[in-house]
Amino acid sequence: MSRHSQTSTVRHYIEGQWSDADGSDFAELTNPATGEVSGLLQLGTQSDVDRAVEAAQRAFISYSSTSLDERVDLLRAVIAEIEKRGDDLAEAVTTDMGMPIELSKLVIGSAVQSFQVLVDELPSYPFEKRHGDYLVVREPIGVAALIPPWNYPSRQIAGKVAPAIAVGCTAVLKPAELAAHSGAVFAEIFHGAGVPAGVVNVVNGFGSVVGSALSRHNHIDVVSFTGSTAVGVQVQRDAADTVKRVSQELGGKSAHIVLPDADFEAAVKTSVDGVMRNSGQTCYAPTRTIIPRAERDRFVELVRKAVDAITVGAPSSPVAMGPVASEKQWQTVQRYIETGIREGATLVVGGTGRPEGLPDRGWFVRPTVFADVSNDMTIAREEIFGPVMSIIGYDTIEEAIDIANDTPYGLAAFVDGADVEKAKQVARRIRAGQVSVNTSALNPNAPFGGYKRSGNGRAWGIWAIEEFLETKALVGAV
Ligand code: NAD
């Protein structure tokens, strides 16, 4: 039977042991689909962070000198354990953030993939390379602080732990408060897989306390942060005094350019699925759909039909959309929908309040689409992180590209067009880290990260290990 229960107390995991809860403060965890208390979260302090960092430093001495084969075996063991505990993990994700259970199960596959791609590609990575008369050696940077967001907890945690331990770093993970049950199941997975004590430690608590203590810590060598741009800036500030590396995967306001010759049915699916999946809580969601003005009515009608078909309800049932993750998130989304209406966008479908027919509890939002949005409206400029889509018209391709790039963000983009060469040319001109051409999918093995205020550094695939490597030059008698 699973040691972790969804109503349990979520404790720290330090040096291979669950820490004693005596003397700690706790916060209640709430299930966003029901409003019921789902557990208690142990709130970490500076001294918990110190203990975890010391454990990681001790473990680094031996773990950093393990062989590549040993680490690949460890990654395989973690994969086996994730697969064994897949149902527990999916349930934890659904309890944490209200993700429909079928989607939670699907995302486990991408958590596995974060480890599998390294099993496949690590052996051919050039950890040592001769350049003429000198040698370049890539080494683990040291102790990593891993600070993920809550939106796809299984994928986000796996995506940070996998590259860190693959190259020989040790780590202190601080799961997002809203994804605490998922973090707890992961601690059990690492333990069950035989990850050596101290290699991955988990300290729970508030970002402003535990996260900040990690960012400022003298003995943390890199912070791998994924979250909002505002908090990313704070992490960078906190890390500045100790000159540590900060890798940032931040917010987005991704564009989807629909070229005049595009398959509109497919393009509508890319936009609607991309924005509405996970209740809009996807960093790369194509929230600005940029369409030929002449085709406005046809496109909007297809979107309306697609959104009308979305079922919203209890995440334990087979629905397309559950609640958003918290009351705070619900209030934020409501404010943005009100702002869209006030600023003069045309409300096509959805709106403020709860969807009809649902009980008056849980943080459910109406999937909402605005048309006739101009790119200077608040809903086109700011990341909403909810199921709200903006349709913006263009007259020329140049104008479409200008609109796509007229944003402080640059995380992802989508281009649809029957003339693939033309679509590729457009894709090349968009300033974003990953651009999908004629597909709604991103490639989880390709580098992913932000231009501009969407961050710096790259995650996903083999590319993610760069954040955890130092570069040493060996010169002279080498
Ligand atoms: P958030 O910025 O509020 O929190 C992210 C993490 O930082 C959490 O674990 C939180 O506890 C922690 N944190 C909070 N304050 C901190 C501080 N002062 N110091 C250190 N850590 C602190 O983000 P969120 O609400 O969890 O996630 C949503 C945001 O994440 C959105 O902006 C979304 O676009 C972004 N996101 C980006 C990517 C990406 O790959 N670029 C992926 C997913 C989510």
What features would you describe in this structure?
By secondary structure, the chain is of the alpha/beta class. It has 2 domains: 263 residues, Aldehyde Dehydrogenase, Chain A, domain 1 (3-Layer(aba) Sandwich); 189 residues, Aldehyde Dehydrogenase, Chain A, domain 2, CATH 3.40.309.10. It has 14 helices and 21 strands. A hairpin with a 2-residue loop joins strand 6 and strand 7. Helix 1 crosses helix 7 and helix 3 runs antiparallel to helix 6. The longest helix has 21 residues. It is globular and about 65 Å long. The chain starts with 8 loop residues before the first strand and ends with a strand. It binds nicotinamide-adenine-dinucleotide. Nicotinamide-adenine-dinucleotide binds next to helix 7 and helix 8.
Give a topology summary.
Layout: E1 9-10, E2 13-14, E3 17-18, E4 25-30, E5 37-43, H1 46-63, H2 68-84, H3 86-97, H4 101-121, E6 128-131, E7 134-140, E8 143-147, H5 153-166, E9 170-173, H6 180-192, E10 200-202, H7 207-216, E11 222-226, H8 229-240, E12 245-249, E13 255-258, H9 264-276, E14 288-292, H10 296-308, H11 327-342, E15 346-349, E16 368-371, H12 378-381, E17 388-394, H13 397-405, E18 412-416, H14 420-428, E19 434-437, E20 455-456, E21 469-474
Parallel strand pairs: 1-5, 8-9, 8-11, 9-10, 11-12, 13-14, 13-18, 14-17, 16-17, 18-19
Antiparallel strand pairs: 2-3, 4-5, 6-7, 7-21, 12-20, 15-16
Helix pairs in contact: 1-7, 2-4, 3-4, 3-6, 4-5, 7-8, 9-10
The protein binds nicotinamide-adenine-dinucleotide.
